[in-house]
Structure formats: structure tokens, C-alpha cells
Amino acid sequence: MPPLHVIALPALLAVAPLSVHADTLKVLTTGAFKQVVVAMVPAFEARTGHKVDVQNDTAGALAKRVAAGETFDVIVLTPGGLRPLAAEGKVVPDSVVLLARVGIGVAVKAGAPKPAVGTVDEFKQAVIAARKIAYIDPAAGGSSGIYLDGLFQKMGIAEAVRAKAVLVPGGLVAERLVSGEADLAIHQISEILPVQGAVLVGPLPDSIQNFTTYAGALSPRAGNAEAARVFLASLSGESAKETIRAKGMLPAQ
Asked: What residue spans define the domains of the chain?
């Protein structure tokens, strides 16, 4: 089984000049990292002349799509999701680079009272008091949904939560606040901030917080390998760190 190597930025940047032929890169990304990818696209397109088609899904769904043979140029996934794909030759093992990490937050509709969530007990009471709670359906393969499902079980409130859960198959969970389907949303912070009409109350308490790390990799069948390498380098470069922080994430350690 080939090892999953995480490479340094200089190795990514050591690429040949881009082809004069303009191509469209297909970038697959988890929803949590989508806002960063989208923000980096305009400068890349202006600099290179290439176009970027960004498609997002849950981590589990993306892994299944690639394992089933879907083509792409660059992928952003969890390191754990990339590992079996590298072993199967679906991504280039030596291209894997850590990008960012993000925690889980709690959100309410703009203008609604903000519950206290600073301690574990406060968070638990906020969940119990909520009429409807929106979070990613664990069955969809979303990282935060899988974690929350286990957390609620450990807290002894799994049955109570499931009875009023609004399980979202993918996308921006906080949109369920705006639509009125839920009055509390729990999702990765980078997927709460983009939702107009939703407000981040705060992160989960430190003792129960869960950070998900994201990494990027290249396809061995990239249509334009040079352009794909340069785009991936842009996601891991110094200029991307400010964008990563602005989107509610932290640069990878």
C-alpha cells in the first residue's frame, strides 16, 4: 500500500510554466472548505487564464464518488478520506498537502435569543431546550454530523435529539434556521458564516470541541497536471492563510 505523504509547500510550487492552452479544472471539495476554494478562484483564473469548476459534497460522499471512478483535477478532503484513495491510485500520494482545520459551532436565526453555550452543561441545556435542531445527517458522511451523533450519545440525549432533529444531507445547515425549519443549528463554523440571516452564537466548549483537518491532493488523471498543481499550491500558500481565517477556519499546523 503506497504511503500517504504530506508534502511541503516548496515542492508544490516547483512546477513548470503553465500551458498557454486554457483548460477548466474540476475541483472537488468538502462543504467546509468550499468558501476558501471559491475565494481563491478569481485570482487563479486571472493569472493563468484557466477556469475552475468547483463542486462540493460531504466528505463521505466525495470519497465514494472518487472511489467509483469520477474524474477530477484537485480534491479537498480529510486526510483519512484521502488515505484509501491514495492506496487505490485515485489520488497522487506524494501530492497530499494539509490545508486547514475547522471546529464546530452553534448558530441561531438573526434576531433570535442567543443561548449560552460556553460550558458543556450550557450547551446541553441549549440542545434540550431547542424546538428543532439542524445538523448534517451522519448517514450522509458529513464529518460534523458523525461527530455530533456520537457526542449526543455520550451526553445521554441522543433519543431526545433524534426526536427533533432536522437532518440535512449536505450543504449549509444554517439555512434551516432562515427557513424556519429549525431554531438551533450545529455545524462547522466555516459553513455557518456564509449563511445570510444566521448568526454564530459560538464554538462548542473546548472539552467537547472537534476539529476536522482538510487536505488537498491531485488526481493522477488530471487534464492539465501543471495547472492543477499550481491551483493546489495556491490553497496552501501564505496568501491563502488570511482567507482561511476569514472563512472561519485555522491554517493547518
From this structure: 9-101+212-251, 104-208
- Tell me the longest C-alpha to C-alpha distance in the chain: 59
What number does CATH give the domain 104-208? 3.40.190.10
Cα separation, 226 vs 221, in Å, equals: 12
Predicted confidence pLDDT, tens digits, the chain (253 residues): 445 555 444 444 433 344 456 799 999 999 999 999 999 999 999 999 999 999 999 999 999 999 999 999 999 999 999 999 999 999 999 999 999 999 999 999 999 999 999 999 999 999 999 999 999 999 998 889 999 999 999 999 999 999 999 999 989 999 999 999 999 999 999 999 999 999 999 999 999 999 999 999 999 999 999 999 999 999 998 889 999 999 999 998 6
CATH topology assigned to domain 9-101+212-251: D-Maltodextrin-Binding Protein; domain 2 (3.40.190)
Q: How far is CA 159 from the centre of its chain?
A: 27
Let me know: does 6 contact 217? Beta carbons within 8 Å.
no
